[in-house]
Specification:
This protein has 219 residues and is an alpha/beta fold. The protein folds into 2 domains: 57 residues, no CATH class; 151 residues, SPOUT methyltransferase, trefoil knot domain (Alpha/beta knot), CATH 3.40.1280.10. 37% of the residues lie in helices and 15% in strands. The chain has a 7-stranded parallel sheet, sandwiched between helices. Helix 3 links the parallel strand 2 and strand 3. The longest helix has 18 residues.
């Protein structure tokens, strides 16, 4: 079994630019169309993993909207807002929650070049009061029209690409895989290249083999 060199190069190029220190946390967004659009934006922005607060074990997406991007962005489910915020803080993330209140700051006035998590809420009601109290900063996107807020997936894209813009200006966008730790990089490279072999290696409880520059097994 082997992979075409052109395909393997594409996989490596994408993985080389992935960032573990930029993510989103999505609360109570139930429309698969919106969830899929958020994941697609994460993929385009170089986000390695997206976080969701879900009562169910699986994030529901529309493949036609996600365009397959759910294969390239890891999805992490959290059972509650507390477990989500605690887990992300332990990883060093600062939480920026989209909310219109007297303490909210224009998103353009903040620095998103370090460990950044954008917290986005439900389509109609936004973030819950409980989760707003957990964020480090409340942020808003200025609006000039009659409506007060954007679609959640659009807001997520704007925030993610502002973080990308800031990081590009400071030469902080990875290009050689330095955005992931080595163990995670190796594991993900194999899983992206040979997804059909994942259950086999897990059943055998064996480590994935190393891959050479052509995507071939070295052992």
């Amino acid at each position: 079994m082997s992979v075409l060199p052109k395909r393997f190069k594409k996989i490596k190029d994408v993985l080389n630019s992935r960032m573990q220190n930029l993510t989103v946390l999505i609360e109570s967004v139930n429309k698969p169309h919106n969830i899929s659009a958020i994941i697609r934006s994460c993929d385009a922005a170089g986000v390695y993993q997206a976080n969701f607060i879900c009562s169910q074990s699986e994030v529901k997406t529309f493949n036609s909207t996600a365009q397959g991007s759910q294969k390239w962005v890891k999805l992490r489910n959290h059972e509650s807002y507390l477990s989500a915020s605690n887990t992300l803080r332990k990883k060093g993330f600062k939480l920026y929650g989209t909310s219109l209140n007297e303490n909210s700051i224009d998103y353009r006035d903040l620095d998103f070049t370090q460990n950044t998590c954008f917290v986005l809420g439900a389509e109609k009601w936004g973030l819950s009061k409980e989760l707003i109290e957990q964020v480090d900063e409340s942020i808003y996107i200025p609006m000039n029209g009659m409506v007060q807020s954007l679609n959640v997936s659009v807001a997520g894209a704007i925030l993610l690409f502002e973080a990308v813009r800031q990081r590009k200006n400071k030469n902080l966008i990875p290009s050689r895989g330095e955005g992931l730790n080595k163990e995670e990089y190796k594991k993900t490279l194999f899983e992206w290249t040979y997804p059909e072999l994942i259950p086999i290696y897990k059943k055998l409880n064996k480590d994935y083999p190393d891959l050479n520059e052509n995507g071939e097994f070295t052992q």
